[in-house]
Amino acid sequence: MALAWAEEKGDKPLARGALALYQRYPSLSPYGILRELKAALGPELITGARRQQGLLHLFHHYCRQGGCAGLSGEQAGCPLA
Description:
Layout: H1 2-9, H2 12-24, H3 32-41, H4 49-61
């Protein structure tokens, strides 16, 4: 929210600060699908809140929509499907 507001208002110092904070924000405790993603992909992949949000986005907009269904070979056993 702060980043969007700062960009709208042209406040570059606030925008940089908000982005830096977001990039450093630690991971939340795994819950629900994040727990499954962490088990499937390994804890080293999920190193912060930003990556958690990215994985949730990929899961909801790709995996849940059948994105893994078209894979073949080693990728056919996608742990997120």
